[in-house]
Every structure is written in structure tokens, then in C-alpha cells.
Amino acid sequence: MPESLLEVQDLGIRFGGLHAVRDVTTHIPAGQITAIIGPNGAGKSTFFNLISGFYQPTSGSIRFDGEDITRLKTHEVVSRGIARTFQTTTIYKELSVLEGVMIGHRVRTRAGLFDALLYTARERRDQAASHAGAMRALERVGLAAQAHLPAGALTQEGQKRVGIAMALASDPKLLLLDEPAAGMNPEETVNLMALIRELVRGGLTVALVEHKMSLVMGLADGIVVLHHGQKIAQGTPQEVSRDPAVIEAYLGGHAHGGQMGNTGKVPAAAEGASHA
């Protein structure tokens, strides 16, 4: 069994009297793709916000690569090796692709405002390191040739890849993808799946929140199912698709329920993508 890179124990957060995430205990194995699924409002993005330090939990603990990161701030979590993308493509469309991705690398540099104002030797070294780091990230997502184009001139798929490159530029061990296929057509979705597989083959661990069941079932090694902020199932795609609690809470009533869960069959990625 693969070693767990991230472990959460009894994790929870309340907003007023509402438990957005409650008593979630789970793990993300190293070197695999883990999907977090559930109906709208299940707590999936909130779960990502807790892991990445955007929210502070009101209960429970988070351990990453053997270290307790429960109370770390976002930039500290990033520096430990966790990066994330967001539901909406958060890129700087007026900047070049390269300039935008360089911003993602700055968390790994040490120069401050004083260095930038005086253009010190440290600032010059950091700029060179950010340039090299950004180009490595663009190579990984297949956009090195578009590095000097305005980011806003790229296709939807290209802009999604820029967002992933910005996260990769911080040199993470764990990449959190929040609805990476949102707004993409079937062909783009299949291309994205191939990219994610390639990143994992290169040594990355990926966790993703996604509503496109064809992508989830064709890509994930393991699935965690949230419902009303609580974990109701975890296992392989085959195990989860046959779980009665999952079928009742999510798959059976979901638009994709007939293609999985109820039949116990796992659709091929390309075949199911057009229905996602």
C-alpha cells in the first residue's frame, strides 16, 4: 500500500452554527490521484481550503509529509510543498504566460521589497531562479512555446494549463486541483486527464475536486466521498461506485447516476467525457 503523504484526523470547521466540514478522517496516498466528490454544498472546496491553509480548522489535525501543518498560514503550507488551483481560472491575463507563472515561483525566493527597489544581487538571483522555475513548469504542462504570449490570448484549455503551471512553479509534492475540467469540452477534458497522469508519473501526488464523473472514474486511483461535510465513503472507483450510501447520497440522484454506481460499471474516460 502506498505511503500516505497527507493525513487528516477528525477535521472540522464551523461557520457560525453550520458545520461545513465535520469529523473527516482520511488520507491521500503518495504518488496517486485521489478524487474528492460529493453533491454541491458537500464541503469539498472547504476541505481543500483547510488543507491549504486558507481556513483554520475548528477541530482536528492535518499532517503532511510527517509534519503537523494544522495551524500553518497559507504561504507556510505552500513552502512545505502543497499547491492548489481554484474553481475559476485565476491567471493574470494581461501578463505574458511566463510572467504569470513566475509569480507562482516567488514563494520559493527570499528577496523582499528593499531588494526589488534597489535591484540587489539577491533580487537578480531570485528573478533568474523564478524564470528558470517558471520555464520548467511550462515545459511540464506543454506551454513552453507559448511562454511569451499574453495569457489571456490562450484557449480555455491553455489558460487552465497556465493555472496548473503557476501551482507547479512552487515545486509542490501535493497538487490540489479544484474542478480543473470546469468549462472544458470533451476533447479538452481528455487532454487534461493525460496531463494529470503525466504529472503523477513524474512524481507528483494529485488530489482533485471534480463534478465530471467520467474524468473521476477514468482517472482516480482512489475516491473520497463527502456529504453534508462528512466523509461517507472512501475506496477505489469500483468500490465507491457500488457503495449503497454513495448511490443514495450522490450518484443515484446525480445526472451521471445511470452511468456509474447503479450499474457498478466504470466508464472509459474518453467514452464518458462527452456526457460530463
Oligomer: single chain
Structural class: alpha/beta
Query: What is the number of independent domains?
Result: 2
Q: What is the straight-line distance between the termini?
A: 31 Å
What is the CATH class designation of the largest domain?
A: Alpha Beta
- Order of neighbouring strands in the sheet with most strands: 6-7-8-3-9-10
At the fourth level of CATH, the homologous superfamily of the largest domain is P-loop containing nucleotide triphosphate hydrolases
Give the overall silhouette. Answer: globular
Overall pLDDT confidence: 85
Q: Which strand-content bin applies to the residues?
A: 15-25%
List segments where confidence is low: pLDDT < 50 over at least 5 consecutive residues.
Answer: 253-276
Discrete helix count: 11
What's the main sheet like? 6 strands, mixed
Q: Give, in order, the helices and strands.
A: EEEHEEHEHHHHEHEHEEHHH
How helical, in percent, are the residues? Answer: 25-40%
Number of strands: 10
> Which value, in Å, is the CA radius of gyration?
19 Å
What is the annotated CATH architecture of the largest domain?
A: 3-Layer(aba) Sandwich
CATH topology label of the largest domain = Rossmann fold
GO molecular function: ATP binding; ATP hydrolysis activity; L-isoleucine transmembrane transporter activity; L-phenylalanine transmembrane transporter activity; L-valine transmembrane transporter activity
InterPro entries: AAA+_ATPase, ABC_AA/LPS_Transport, ABC_transporter-like_ATP-bd, BCA_ABC_TP_C, P-loop_NTPase
Pfam family, one: BCA_ABC_TP_C
Protein name: Putative Branched-chain amino acid ABC transporter, ATP-binding component
